[in-house]
Design brief:
Radius of gyration of chain A: 17 Å
Number of helices of chain A: 8
Shape of chain A: elongated
Oligomer: heterodimer
Order of helices and strands of chain A: HHHHHHHH
Helix content of chain B: over 70%
Largest interface: A-B, 45 and 32 residues
Structural class of chain B: mainly alpha
Strand content of chain B: under 5%
Radius of gyration of chain B: 34 Å
Helix content of chain A: 55-70%
Shape of chain B: elongated
Chain lengths: 182, 129
């Protein structure tokens, strides 16, 4: 999913220098990644859109802190991870987690699987982000650790706990096995 | 001899295929003879498969356009707030110097005037672009 290869360094350089057309083109290329991470964090289209906008607002504000000698996408992934987690923390206090309300997906989008949607909604945001980066983005644990700025062991624990929670919530008791001691 | 506890310590790595071939063979051998661990492996595999099959979602086609429009709205709204704060400061300063001395003796007049300023500002901010 990572569109790194498709982002010309020249486009990044021009967007960073403040060229509006280049910034718009860059946002266009990054929107699928940002929206899918946001969708996996919220499981709600309007919230995912709001979260994606927050990501791009942060990109706009902090672009100057990006060192152009380094690869752009890992930097952007870290920014996305921070922006999404902050969004969740800010909005968590404003409203309760929706366990029974999931907005229908837009016609062009695949229908979310309900038991996965509901089970993921119960996970802490750090575990949701680790799952999104591992399963959607296909990152290795070490890369997730770098993106989320936490130790490798923490990522392993988050992924482990997330799978165990999903197992107990998504599967019927006879399918879920006996569970593994944490 | 591998125990269930040994097996379960590696269950996630086993399901994710993160084990060396010899280690995997050991876990396979245990699972073949242990219904409980086999059930555990199948349950974890189901969860893992569901997560891998979670579909990619198409973003709204105009997400970039709306994000950039959102910047402009936020920027205008921030400018409004700054302007409102400056107006408030100027207004309070002026009131202190321009209110006639006699008026300040009318009961409740000053508190009504003091309430009007924030009300006006709140209404202005609510109608800000």
């Amino acid at each position: 999913m990572t569109p790194t290869a498709e982002i010309p360094p020249d486009l990044v350089r021009r967007a960073r220098a403040g060229d509006p057309a280049s910034f718009r083109a860059l946002v266009d290329r990054l929107s699928a990644f940002a929206f899918n991470i946001a969708w996996r964090m919220t499981r709600h289209r309007a919230d995912a859109e709001d979260m994606s906008q927050e990501v791009f607002l942060r990109l706009h504000r902090h672009f100057a802190t990006y060192d152009p000698r380094l690869p752009f996408f890992p930097w952007f992934r870290r920014l996305t991870s921070n922006a999404c987690l902050n969004w969740c923390r800010t909005h968590r206090s404003r409203r309760p987690a929706r366990l029974d309300e999931t907005e229908p997906a837009a016609p062009e989008s695949p229908e979310p699987s309900d038991d996965l949607t509901l089970a993921v909604a119960t996970l802490p945001e750090e575990q949701r982000m680790a799952l999104a980066l591992f399963y959607f983005e296909g990152l290795a644990v070490a890369e997730i650790s770098e993106s989320m700025e936490v130790p490798v062991g923490t990522v392993k624990t988050w992924l482990y706990r997330a799978r165990e929670t999903l197992k107990s919530r998504m599967l019927k008791p006879d399918e879920a096995g006996e569970g593994i001691r944490p | 001899m591998m125990t269930c506890d040994d097996w379960r310590a590696f269950a996630h790595d086993y399901v994710l295929g993160d084990l060396s071939e010899p280690a995997r063979a050991l876990l396979d051998a245990h699972a073949e003879s242990c219904a409980s661990c086999l059930g555990e492996a199948r349950a974890l595999q189901r969860v893992d498969r569901r997560l891998r099959e979670d579909p990619v979602v198409a973003p709204p086609p105009d997400l970039a356009k709306r994000a950039l429009e959102g910047f402009a709205v936020r920027r205008r709204s921030e400018l409004w707030r700054v302007a409102a704060a400056l107006l408030l400061a100027a207004g309070v300063g002026s009131m202190a110097t321009l209110v006639p001395e006699d008026w300040s003796r009318v009961p409740g007049a000053m508190s009504k005037a003091a309430r009007l300023v924030p009300t006006f500002l709140v209404e202005s901010l609510e109608h800000a672009p």
